[in-house]
Amino acid sequence: MARTQKHVSEVDPVWRRITEEAQAAVDSEPLLGGLVHACVLHHPSLENALAYRVAQKLASSEMSEQLLREIADEAFALDLRLGAQARADIVAVFDRDPACHRFLQPLMFFKGFQAITAYRVGHYLWREGRKDLAYFIQMRVSEVFGVDIHPAARVGQGIMIDHAHSIVIGETAVVGDNVSMLHSVTLGGTGKEEEDRHPKIGDGVLIGAGAKVLGNIEVGHCSRIAAGSVVLHPVPPMKTVAGVPAKIVGEAGCDQPSLAMDHLFGGPATGL
Q: What residues contact residue 173 under an 8 Å CB cut-off, 6+ apart?
């Protein structure tokens, strides 16, 4: 098994780049040597490093780092999708966030990536029927990162949450692949209904800071939601919506808004 793990790490370009950047970080700032070695260089794979980082961040007097590490290690070992999703998320942050200059940064410093990674561990537990433990992970992610994602929510890969403060994603929400959102985004319900009650966000959607998308509505692929908008009705694919309540104000402006990260728009509102 050790030989297999070594082989995987050698052919994994994301992990190889992270380890190279980690060594360079230690060389340039020796005071971070202990932290970087503990978080990156002591581990044979990205999955092991992620499990360590999740456990380190979420540990408290209520549950030890060692126990959380065992839980996270199990999740990454038994659900190979978690590692693949994490790699896609790292690349997404690097490509879309102008403040990210290295693959190392999301793993070490960015709470948006760390929160979504921890959520994925909780989602694994939820699917395994271990719901109370999944709720515990949700609670700690909310307390530590200010990001509250219900463990039953379904979130795709290639996700970039910039700044990641006051993010709320409800129980029946679905978030597609390659979605970008900024701080204070809410994907919430509209009342006390207990059935399917949260938004369904398509692939490639860009959600601006402070936007609220409420109810069991669909936001079409490659659309844009302007900062501060309150979306109460379905959004067609490849449109831009803005306002309170949000209305269509034009086309999306490009093929992949979530990749371009262009929040500017113009033209008269066409109505929703």
A: 150, 153, 154, 187, 198, 199, 200, 201
Residue with structure tokens 């980082």? 53
**What pLDDT sits at residue 265?**
64
The Cα–Cα gap between 56 and 69 comes to 8
- Compare 8 and 88 and report the one with higher pLDDT: 88
| Residue 82 and residue 121 in contact, taking contact as beta carbons nearer than 8 Å | yes
- Gap between the Cα atoms of 193 and 43, Å rounded: 45
Contact 154, 173 (CB under 8 A): yes
191 close to 215: Cβ distance less than 8 angstroms: no
**pLDDT at position 4, please?**
46
**Packing angle of the helix pair 46-58, 65-78 (nearest 10 deg):** 140
* pLDDT greater than 80 at residue 10: no
Closest CA to 149 of 93, 203, 198: 198
Residue with tokens 């919430």: 188
Contact 158, 175 (CB under 8 A): no
Look at strands 206-207 and 180-181 and give their pairing. parallel
DSSP letter at 40? Answer: I
Task: Decide: 120 and 154 in contact? Cβ < 8 Å.
Answer: no
Contact (Cβ atoms closer than 8 angstroms) between residue 224 and residue 265: yes
Q: Which two tokens stand for residue 254?
A: 């490009």
Instruction: Using pLDDT thresholds of 50, 70 and 90, give the confidence band for residue 193.
Output: confident
Q: 156 and 146 in contact (C-beta within 8 Å)? A: no
